[in-house]
Amino acid sequence: MVTTTERDGATWFACEVCGMLFDDREDATQHERSCEGEEPTYLQ
Ligand SMILES: [Zn+2]
């Protein structure tokens, strides 16, 4: 889930997986989807 952080009077959106900050919620959400997708989870 994308988390929000307030800094210098602005709201930032952080990827919960790697911690990268975005100034746009959509950018953060899109990034986080692919960020999570990078980890292979082929546990069977
Ligand atoms: Zn990320």
TrEMBL record:
InterPro entries: DUF7128, Znf_C2H2_sf, Znf_C2H2_type. It comes from the Archaea. Residues 13-40 form the C2H2-type domain. Pfam families: DUF7128. This is C2H2-type domain-containing protein. It comes from Halopenitus malekzadehii.
